[in-house]
Model the fold of this input.
Amino acid sequence: SIPLSFFAGIGGASNAGVLIKGSNYLETLSQVKAIVFDKTGTLTQGVFEVSGIHHNKLEDEKLLELAALAESASSHPISRSLQRAYGKPVDRSRVSDIQEISGNGVIAKVDGMEVAAGNDKLMKRLGIDFIPCHHVGTIIHMAVNGAYAGHIVISDVIKPHSKQAIHDLHRAGIQKTIMLTGDIDPVARQVADELGIDEVYSELLPADKVEKVESLLQNKPSGGKLAFVGDGINDAPVLSRADIGIAMGAMGSDAAIEAADVVLMDDDPLKIVKAVKISRKCLRIVY
Ligand code: ADP
Ligand code: MG
Done:
């Protein structure tokens, strides 16, 4: 039988914007000793500003337009940011044959041209000779009709409370904080260093993230549970693999909300600290 105060705990948590799907998750949450975070949209805002456009033949504006059109069906934070930077409504009738390759980017037909927008991995997959880019930021390489067309450099910002949240979690006895990302290593390290995250793994495809979580589960602090926190874009498999999956924000995809054990109602990382504290308090009352 489920002790009554579990219901009170779940109810109290939900008033604080922390939805816990069952009393067993409340208990698991109280035992968490390692937390794995996804970067984009979880610790960073996932709202990228365009910081540079470097083209080969096309005008900057044309490159941005092709990117915005090719990305028009994606709900990835990168896509939303490119739409915003483009600033005009996108005429979807100009776009067809859209393919989104998770952790790589998108390919689509725009005005009859084959447009690819994504990272190094996408360019390699398509066999396109590209110029490696050394700018600090997330790089969207572009190819048009099989030829390299330039790149757009975008940068994301850390959420205002991320550093405080990591600090508070460590103080609350969380022994290990880990960040996983599909983004490139220099960006990943910069974010992790600034936040005081213990371990960081970059350039991971969604399947690599699942593998990483599996190996972290083998090596977690003894007796403790491992949580994964993500914003939901491509994160459903990792959310279900961790001892406890926490989906963040109303922006989270339906698949993530479904796969998660705990859903945070807003994007504030301090809600993670709150969730852990509520669960412990409740467990102390029960036992
Ligand atoms: P994260 O782990 O930071 O949440 P993702 O796994 O969603 O990142 O994406 C990893 C990388 O794949 C991005 O940094 C980007 O280079 C590329 N990528 C993914 N989706 C897109 C997209 N829609 N457009 C362009 N690039 C993308
Ligand atoms: Mg993500």
About this structure: The radius of gyration is 20 Å. The chain has twelve helices and 13 strands. The CA atoms of residues 209 and 238 lie 7 Å apart.
